[in-house]
Structure formats: C-alpha cells, structure tokens
Predict the 3D structure of the following.
Amino acid sequence: LIFDARNGADSLRLPTAWSLPVALRALDRADSLSPRPSIWLLRGILLYGAHRDAEALRAFERVNRSTEASLRSYFFAAQALSRAGGNDSAVVALLDSALAHTPTPFTAEAAAPLAWRAVYAERLGDHRRAVLDLVDYERLVPATELAAPFFLRRAALAEQARLYRRAVDDYTTAAARTPDRETRIEALTAKALLCVHLSAGDEALAAAEELQRLTPDTPDALKLLGLAHQLLGHRAQARRYLSQAAAKGDANAAELLRKVK
C-alpha cells in the first residue's frame, strides 16, 4: 500500500492486483487472529477511500479508544466525519485531539491538521485561532509553497481578529510575492486602508505611493495618498490628492476633502 500521511486519507492507492473486498477480507481475517489498532486504522483508510465514511469513522474511533491513538488516527477521523456531514465543532474537537498527539514544537506532520483546523475555525468565527494555526502552518511548509493568496487570506482573517500588525505584515508579503498586477493592487489597497485606519501615516503613504505607481491617478490611489498625507499633517498635499480623486468622481473623497482644515 502507498500512503502519504501529509495529504491525508485521500492519498491511499491500492496495488492493481488488489480490490477493496479482497483487502477488507484480509484485514478481517487478520483482526480475528490478532486484533490490533494498525489493522483498524488501515481498514478505516480503505473504507474512507471507498467513500464509506460512516464505517471508516467507526474504524478510526476504535483506534482512538486504544493506546495507539495518534495524530493520524484522529486526523483521519476528522476527515471522515467532515465528509459524512458531521458537526463543525465535532470536527474541530477531533483536529484538536490530532494536534494534541504530536510533539511541540510542531513537526511537518502537523501541517495538514493545522490547515484543516484553520478552515473550520474561520467557519466557526474564531478568526484568531485561524490566524494562529496558519502562522504555525507557515513554519512547517516550504516557503515556495506559500503564494500571495495565502498571505491575503491570513491578512483578512487577522483584520477580523484585530491582529492588525499581523495583517499589515501579511499584506506587505502578499504584495511582494506576487507577479500578478491585480493581486498586488489588491494587497496594497488593503494595506493602505488598514494603515489609515490605524493612523500609521508613514506605512499608509508608502503603500499608497506604490499603488499610485501601479495605477497612476486612479481615484483610489489618489484618495489614499490624500488620507496618508492628512495623517502626517501634510494639509496641502492632502487637499491636492483628495481634490484630484473627487474630480474623478469619488464622492467619498469629496466628503473627506471638506473635513481637511
């Protein structure tokens, strides 16, 4: 049997000479002669691969009640329960148990359960947990596997969790790591807006200036330049850029201009 633990139960491939019924009969015979958790685990993986999720879950639960419960057995149980339509909180509980059965600091084996738990934490509204899991995940995978969308997603979660420094840093990384112009514009716009919200004038101005170089004289770039200069006390520059944005039809810029003294 060929199995890649990093990718979860879906990575199982049976040798061509085998079939599922043959494999299950062999496991049942082995279990009757000498019951052991390794047999139950393999049975669960086979059943999961056949989309017999309820049966697979029972096999994984049997392992988890034994002294050989492990990250793998709990992670497989979480996958089976998820695909069977189980409660999100129950899936998270299994992922928690999986991660409790791995050494700390985490090793590469924990990457997949962390990624799964981040997804479920987001679904459950626990944005801080999702961010922290993705921070751990980043430490465990090669940097080449982490592209701009990963950092954009984590930045947005960090904003929701009010982890603003993390969000600013991730928007910066997303902008730096993408060759795609539109993705870079998205990251820089989000960074500039957040820095304005945080009254971080220097960082807001740097992001807005970079955005202006990418999208010269667009209303968004001009407005962000105006807001950044306003934060820094540069009233004349603030009025100039906000006036230009308003002239291009940005009603919000026109309203902001009226507030610049």
About this structure: Residues 1-9 have pLDDT under 50 and may be disordered. The chain is about 70% helix and 0% strand.
